[in-house]
Design brief:
Blueprint: H1 2-23, H2 32-69, H3 81-92, H4 105-112, H5 116-119, H6 125-172, H7 177-231
Helix pairs in contact: 3-6, 3-7, 6-7
Length: 251
């Protein structure tokens, strides 16, 4: 038994240093630092790629906005304002009217209304008749021309309304800055065309009023000229007149 105890103590004494030395050995990971560095680099690469994608998307959106803002309307819709005004000017030159749109409006007026000097002379009866007929014709045609212009503007309102509705839809459906500007310009042009028609109507009113005023003035000048012509005649004085005797008739 003592022998067994001795053997056990010897074994314990021999194994104790070995166990203590084994517990003191450190554990070292040779590749751990390189793995963490690689993982950090991959995360940075992914972040960089995500930022590049975001910038690319922003650039694409900017290009789309530029394309949309520089996109023209499908077609310009300006109406037929010049054709309308030309037709109104033609209506104003109806018959023998003294039209504001005539290139020789003053010559036309002077041809109809001759003035005081033309009547302060001996005038044949047929000249007076011809003049009366010309003035009456001019007044009648001028009044008719004014009505034709007013009626022409009224007839064009339906076409103007259709044009205005198309321009309003183009303004409402504008998808970019340039389309909105172009639609606004079309609406402004339509407003200007309506003002031009109002100017034509006012010019027609002036045409009629001027003709009426000139006709009344011509009538007064003609009467005054003929009266002055009569008063300027050779009338013998009372001293030079001879009194002839006469006798009463016997019944």
């Amino acid at each position: 038994m003592h022998t067994s105890i001795k053997q056990a103590l010897l074994c314990s004494a021999f194994l104790l240093p070995v166990c203590q030395q084994a517990q003191a050995i450190p554990v070292v990971c040779v590749n751990c630092s390189s793995e963490w560095t690689q993982l950090a680099n991959n995360i940075q690469l992914v972040t960089t790629q995500a930022e590049n994608i975001r910038q690319t998307i922003n650039q694409v959106q900017m290009i789309e906005n530029q394309i949309r803002n520089t996109k023209n309307l499908a077609s310009g819709d300006w109406g037929n304002v010049f054709d309308h005004l030309q037709r109104l000017n033609v209506l104003a030159r109806h018959g023998e009217s003294i039209a504001f749109s005539s290139a020789s409006v003053m010559e036309d007026m002077n041809a109809v209304f001759k003035g005081y000097d033309s009547w302060n002379k001996t005038v044949a009866p047929q000249d007076l008749s011809t003049h009366y007929r010309n003035v009456s014709q001019s007044l009648g045609d001028t009044a008719a021309a004014s009505m034709k212009v007013a009626n022409g503007i009224h007839a064009q309102q339906a076409e103007d309304n259709v044009t205005l509705q198309r321009q309003q839809r183009a303004s409402e459906n504008a998808t970019g800055r340039l389309q909105a500007i172009q639609a606004g310009n079309q609406l402004s042009a339509q407003t200007i065309s309506q003002l031009q028609k109002i100017e034509t109507l006012l010019a027609t009113q002036i045409q009629l009023t001027s003709t009426l005023v000139q006709a009344e003035n011509e009538r007064k000048q003609m009467q005054q000229a003929q009266q002055d012509r009569f008063m300027q005649g050779d009338v013998p004085s009372l001293e030079s007149r001879e009194l002839k005797p006469f006798s009463l008739k016997q019944f």
